[in-house]
Amino acid sequence: xxxxxxxxxxxxxxxxxxxxxxxxxxxxxxxxxxxxxxxxxxxxxxxxxxxxxxxxxxxxxxxxxxxxxxxxxxxxxxxxxxxxxxxxxxxxxxxxxxxxxxxxxxxxxxxxxxxxxxxxxxxxxxxxxxxxxxxxxxxxxxxxxxxxxxxxxxxxxxxxxxxxxxxxxxxxxxxxxxxxxxxxxxxxxxxxxxxxxxxxxxxxxxxxxxxxxxxxxxxxxxxxxxxxxxxxxxxxxxxxxxxxxxxxxxxxxxxxxxxxxxxxxxxxxxxxxxxxxxxxxxxxxxxxxxxxxxxxxxxxxxxxxxxxxxxxxxxxxxxxxxxxxxxxxxxxxxxxxxxxxxxxxxxxxxxxxxxxxxxxxxxxxxxxxxxxxxxxxxxxxxxxxxxxxxxxxxxxxxxxxxxxxxxxxxxxxxxxxxxxxxxxxxxxxxxxxxxxxxxxxx
Length: 442
Ligand SMILES: Cc1ncc(COP(=O)(O)O)c(C=O)c1O
Description:
The chain is of the alpha/beta class. The chain has 12 helices and 15 strands. The protein folds into 2 domains: 16-58 and 339-441, Aspartate Aminotransferase, domain 1, CATH 3.90.1150.10; 73-337, Type I PLP-dependent aspartate aminotransferase-like (Major domain) (Aspartate Aminotransferase, domain 2, 3-Layer(aba) Sandwich), CATH 3.40.640.
């Protein structure tokens, strides 16, 4: 497979072999969230080859395979671990590998209190663990707080905190009762029609000044779930004061602050955890996606005093399986050895400058935002109204795939960019050229 692709290709998607696979999957898989008919044969670094021989530059995989598709060190570590042991029922037994991974994950989160780690298989499960741990330790506090636009998972507990799209909620309520959602700091389209900074961060202060007086008794709240940058909601970066104020309110009212780093964490924003940009940390920290370079592994890293402390209160089967542990260890090693967090910061600056230039040429791009290599452009009907232009966003996405660039949508009108952190400038230039052409065609 070529490692770069200078010319912009034009593919018919799906190709003939791909079409047959699309039909087979459609017949047998439950409806999910398919974006494009890319039918993968192999993937390496940032390149994906489909079953018809088309090669794509993948600017989606950094969200999960942050070290790149099939990083040789990660792949080797997994293969070697498969020879050693695959499954030893890690919640029941012990291993040096599990001890090391727990220690290294605990160290990711600064804090005076010691940390404990719950190993699991998905971001959803990491959030469920936070939900249960905080409920277990604060049994009289049965309320939870989340933010509009948030995504915390799809099982009934985590879904109760998710409030990103109606499709995720319709027919599923009430999954758990007494979850209150308040608007997030969405400055580009402020729900209160205010402007930063003259708003004095009303979206954060309203929690204490209005909700805690009229609707939510704070001493009944066990946890507040916060994404440091809203992912599914559209790559919304809040002003630092927003996180500071919410963190402070949580602290003063004995409410556990759950920092959901499943999407924003593990280096892609130019910090290991995105909340580090704001100089604070959570009582509970959910990590997933990129922590295993593509292997289904996640973790809840919580203040030691939030541990369950009673055998059987919470556990699982596959948490701490050999492949997951080997993948986390190798991912953290590669991040350090290849200085991928620093790389995300540097290349993110390069990439966002290119996206801003692109926005100068295309008035349909209303906003360019993000941190590090977690970036987005937002399509508007016009810059004055800032109304979502979902149709145009979707057409642009379609053209990008035809021209060999894999991207994902976010929110109602944004395209998100999360290339693997091993991306280079040439690949960024190529992606921007494809975008430029796709926007013109759309
Ligand atoms: C912020 C956030 N939390 C939780 C989840 C759920 O993770 P998973 O799909 O691994 O269960 C996601 C998934 O997109 C996410 O973006």
